[in-house]
Design brief:
With 263 residues, the chain is of the alpha+beta class. The protein is 17% helix and 32% strand.
Length: 263
Amino acid sequence: MGRNPSLLDKTLIIGILVIFVCIGIQSAFAITNNNIQPDVPEITAPVMIHNPGPHESYSGFIFYNGSLSGYVNDTSGNPIEGALIRVYFHETYEEDYSESTGFYHVKNISICWCMKNSTCSKQGYKTEWVLLSINENTFYDFVLTEGNNAPDAPDIFGPTSGKPGIEYVYEFCSNDPENDNISYYIEWGDGTITGWTDYFPSGEFAVFSHTWDKIDWDNILRAKTKDIYGDESDWSTREIPIYKPNINHLLLRFIVRLLIKLR
């Protein structure tokens, strides 16, 4: 015959059930507290937004909103009208002409780490130049001295070597700051001289030909220019060896040059 549970047994069972229920409730709250986080607003650094203008770029953080302004005067303090002010940067330039008061204002210059070559020129005055660091409002006054500027040393274009008895054509080109016409003086290296030539427009190619009569491994061609006022440029030189293509000569030339370098 089975035994009926007593009051003590029932109480013990109920107590155990209560303990399990409490443990389950506590675990549920713990899981809930660990998995549910309060909404916290995300904090990010402020973003500076700049809409570039027609002459601005995001690339490299370079902006073309710099300017250079000031006055152009002569050595007596008188304003000079019509002077050309040009600022070079990044293989380009911006420019402006001075007003009757001498004032000028060059705009759309890049603002970056590099120095800008800034020039001021006018016919009858010597060109002035200066290296400037440009910001949004840079000021600089130019003072021009009366006088003439010599043309640039000429560039020489043509064969880099030659053979005796063959005519070769060379082109010469120079620029004058005031766009004056230019004459050329050429020494071909063999004692032949092309004296001051007729005048050519500034920046225009002048073409001349020459024939060397004998071998000269150390032949040097050089040339200079002058403008209509007689101011001369520096010399431009170019080594143009004259030889016959003989393997023995080439080998000897190579050995000589190698020995010179090893000295």
